[in-house]
Design brief:
Layout: H1 3-12, E1 17-19, E2 22-27, E3 30-34, E4 39-43, H2 45-54, H3 56-65, H4 70-79, H5 87-94, E5 98-102, E6 105-111, E7 117-123, E8 133-134, H6 140-144, E9 166-171, H7 173-183, H8 187-195, H9 204-209, H10 223-233, E10 242-243, E11 263-264, H11 269-282, E12 289-290, H12 295-309, H13 327-337, E13 338-339, E14 342-343, E15 347-348
Parallel strand pairs: 8-9, 10-11
Antiparallel strand pairs: 1-2, 2-3, 3-4, 5-6, 6-7, 7-9, 12-15, 13-14
Helix pairs in contact: 1-3, 10-11
Length: about 350
């Protein structure tokens, strides 16, 4: 606590102060100063200053939070576990740092001079890595989030494909929130609205009904198709948001919503694009085919589909020919069973 903070607190007592257990006010009888441990009324200014000086963490803590916006303040207080730790315990813990995970972001809050906070941001996978590239401008987060570790474009910013190897050291609270929002747009704002019971959710059917042009077919997807759509695109392995939308307000989807810290309030553009393709595929009539395969080849088809769907094709080693999705196994199957891109023995079954 410094003299400026004490003077600010004294002036603020005219309107009354309450923050994290600190209560301070002033009336005709004098000053009141109260914390969870002490309560004194009718104090002179000298007595008030003495009590404040004996409880400096309450004063600097109030001073830090007094000008923070509601949304930023809620997020920053969540980071330092303010609802779980008292001011003194929080200050002691902040010396070594308090952390939270936000998607693939690891946020660490530490205590600076006179109760100021400093924040560091890095990838969760880099928690114990020392030599990272340092960035300071929140806008640089937008560039980091553009490509994944393989250099591929990331169309979905909340996909669990954020690249590693960077950090933003020594951010203030405002720039921390800005940086997080460049990585994961609107997540802090929607998280706060949800905590205030003010998150406006747009369900799939409402989103589908307002589509026009080539996306008009999205509305043709039935509830079973929407279930498969959510299972395909909106689970934790594909997106770090927690899905809050359903088929409609009365029809809940069975697909797990996910464990993400921040909510998804409506089907995103990527989901709508996928829904269009799935709706077109679902419009085809089913037919029955006959295909001659060995039992191992039949199992291999399942392994191939699983490997592609789970995004692990690149993880299968060339020498691991026991895996049905191994490249050589797939090439052998193609050489044996496919002629000119079609299964050689595939026939439509006569009715």
């Amino acid at each position: 606590m410094n003299d400026s903070q004490l003077r600010a607190l004294r002036e603020a007592t005219a309107d009354g102060v309450t923050c994290d257990g600190l209560s301070a006010s002033r009336d005709d009888a004098g000053y009141t100063f109260a914390t969870p441990e002490v309560h004194h009324e009718s104090l002179t200014e000298t007595e008030f200053d003495a009590l404040a000086t004996e409880n400096p963490w309450f004063v600097s803590n109030w001073h830090y939070w007094r000008d923070t916006s509601e949304t930023n303040g809620a997020f920053l207080r969540w980071i330092e576990h303010a609802s779980e730790l008292g001011v003194r315990e929080r200050y002691e813990t902040l010396v070594d740092g308090l952390t939270r995970e936000w998607g693939q972001l690891l946020v660490t809050a530490t205590l600076g001079t006179d109760g100021e906070r400093s924040y560091e941001l890095r990838h969760t996978a880099d928690a114990d890595v020392e030599n990272l590239d340092s960035y300071h401008d929140p806008r640089e987060a937008r560039d980091i989030a553009t490509l994944d570790d393989t250099g591929e474009y990331r169309p979905l910013k909340t996909a669990p494909t954020l690249r590693e190897g960077w950090r933003f050291p020594d951010l203030d609270g405002r720039d921390l929130v800005r940086t997080v929002e460049f990585f994961y747009p609107a997540t802090v704002a929607n998280w706060y609205r949800e905590r205030q019971s003010d998150l406006d959710v747009t369900h799939f059917r409402e989103t589908a009904e307002r589509q026009t042009g080539i996306y008009d077919v999205v509305d043709d997807l039935d509830v079973d198709g929407v279930e498969r759509l959510a299972e395909t695109c909106c689970v934790d392995s594909q997106c770090l948001k927690r899905r809050e939308w359903d088929e409609d307000s009365e029809t809940t989807l069975d697909v797990p919503r996910g464990d993400g810290e921040f909510p998804c309030r409506e089907p995103c553009s990527l989901v709508v694009a996928a829904a269009r393709q799935f709706a077109i595929l679902e419009s085809e009539e089913t037919r029955t085919y006959e295909l001659e395969l060995t039992p191992s080849e039949r199992s291999q088809l399942g392994e191939l589909v699983d490997a592609v769907a789970d995004g692990r094709v690149d993880e299968i080693r060339e020498a691991d020919v026991g895996d049905g999705a191994n490249r050589y196994r797939a090439r052998y199957l193609r050489a044996k069973r496919l002629a000119e891109g079609e299964f050689e023995s595939l026939r439509e079954k006569s009715q």
